[in-house]
């Protein structure tokens, strides 16, 4: 028997937000959107009064931050260590040097020099200090928490919705999807995986009772500088947009922020190192190279419920 479900779509964190709430009080969608707005106000690097902006503008000084912000930074530092630096939140200066120095919807192509000018490796997280509710960045280190922030926000809001009395929840923030609890229909949660090489088409659908799906691709947030096309996925080892042969990665994991981290790390690592990275962390993933070849890693087939080649039908995607 299908459960009562309510949903909302809205812009958030520079992306499209989509919430599905199963049962619970009538105001849960509104409460979830309010929490997401609060998190964005703390984490956006494009807001000069955000906690992240305050921290980035205070090198060498201890800065008191909210509990969610300290937790997010802690997870970002841990992810840097766990991935051997393939995921690195200290790429902000390189990202700005490549031209991504304002919100993406206001970004314009221009003739200024591109990312090859003065590109240097990201400084890394080794010097970042966290002490309870305080964080200190060493000089020369600035944070971009955009990707992991969306994933962690999805995790937090899904957990809060269940804590507020929902029987089930799906939080989709720009493709970082976290599902928890009861799904609206009998088939569980089904999430569509975009085919980034063919817009408006799905690569496959994955089904899961709980957990997260996140994708990373160099094909979406792109712009031009001096006639050269650039993108937002910076290789920390060079300070330049990744030149990996992998165009897109999707990962299924227990939490959205971890799926986001591993998707980005696997893309930057390329093949075959990216596939091995996912296998070594026990997660399922699919890597797509620029020529459209699909490489599955880990127990992907356990979750995949439909592909264009398989035919047939499947329940409507959750996100």
Jot down its keywords.
globular, three-stranded antiparallel sheet, eight-stranded antiparallel sheet, 319 residues, alpha+beta, T-fold
Structure description:
- The protein has seven helices and 18 strands.
- The protein has a single domain (5-50, 57-306), classed as T-fold (Roll), CATH 3.10.520.
- The relative contact order is 0.15.
- The longest helix is centred in the middle third of the chain and has 18 residues, at 146-163.
- The protein is an alpha+beta fold and 319 residues long.
- The strands form five sheets. An eight-stranded antiparallel sheet has the order 1-2-6-7-10-15-16-17. Strands 3-5-4 form a three-stranded antiparallel sheet, with no helix packed on it.
Question: Could you give a quick summary of the protein structure above?
Answer:
This protein is an alpha+beta fold. The chain has helices spanning 28-43, 51-56, 67-82, 92-97, 146-163, 256-269, 273-280; strands at 5-12, 15-22, 62-64, 129-131, 134-136, 168-173, 176-181, 189-194, 202-208, 211-217, 222-225, 228-231, 234-235, 240-241, 246-253, 284-289, 294-297, 304-306.
- Helix/strand class: alpha+beta
Rg from alpha-carbon coordinates: 19 Å
Strand fraction equals 25-35%
Count of helical segments?
Answer: 7
CATH topology name, in short, is T-fold
What's the helix-strand series? EEHHEHHEEHEEEEEEEEEEHHEEE
User: Unreliable segments (pLDDT under 50, ≥5 consecutive)?
Assistant: none
Q: In total, how many beta strands? A: 18
Strand line-up across the major sheet: 1-2-6-7-10-15-16-17
Helix content: 25-40%
Mean pLDDT reading:
89
Separation of the first and last Cα atoms: 21 Å
Q: Tell me the count of domains.
A: 1
The CATH superfamily is known as ApbE-like domains
**What is the correct CATH architecture?**
Roll
Characterize the main sheet: 8 strands, antiparallel
Output the CATH class name.
Alpha Beta
What coarse outline follows from CA principal-axis ratios? globular
């Amino acid at each position: 028997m299908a459960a009562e479900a309510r949903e909302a779509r809205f812009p958030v964190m520079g992306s499209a937000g989509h919430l599905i709430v199963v049962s619970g009080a009538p105001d849960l969608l509104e409460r979830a959107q309010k929490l997401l707005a609060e998190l964005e106000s703390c984490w956006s690097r494009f807001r000069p009064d955000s906690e992240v902006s305050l921290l980035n503008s205070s090198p060498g000084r201890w800065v008191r931050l909210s509990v969610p912000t300290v937790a997010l930074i802690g997870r970002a530092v841990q992810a840097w260590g766990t991935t051997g630096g393939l995921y690195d939140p200290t790429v902000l200066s390189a990202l700005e040097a490549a031209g991504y120095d304002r919100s993406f919807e206001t970004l314009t192509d221009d003739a200024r020099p591109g990312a090859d000018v003065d590109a240097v490796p990201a400084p890394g997280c080794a010097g970042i200090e966290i002490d309870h509710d305080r964080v200190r960045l060493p000089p020369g280190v600035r944070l971009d928490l955009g990707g992991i922030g969306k994933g962690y926000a999805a995790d937090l809001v899904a957990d809060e919705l269940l804590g507020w009395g929902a029987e089930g929840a799906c939080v989709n923030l720009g493709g970082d999807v976290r599902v928890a609890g009861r799904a609206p229909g009998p088939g569980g949660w089904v999430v569509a995986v975009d085919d980034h090489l063919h817009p408006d088409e799905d690569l496959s659908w994955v089904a899961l009772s709980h957990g997260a799906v996140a994708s990373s691709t160099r094909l979406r947030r792109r712009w031009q500088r001096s006639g050269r096309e650039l993108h937002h996925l910076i290789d920390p080892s060079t300070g330049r947009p990744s030149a990996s042969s992998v165009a897109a990665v999707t990962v299924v994991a227990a939490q959205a922020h971890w799926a986001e981290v591993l998707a980005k790390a696997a893309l930057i690592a390329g093949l075959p190192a990216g596939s091995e990275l996912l296998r070594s962390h026990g997660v399922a993933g699919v890597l797509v190279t620029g020529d459209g070849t699909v490489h599955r890693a880990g127990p992907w087939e356990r979750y995949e419920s439909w592909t264009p080649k398989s035919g047939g039908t499947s329940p409507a995607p959750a996100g």
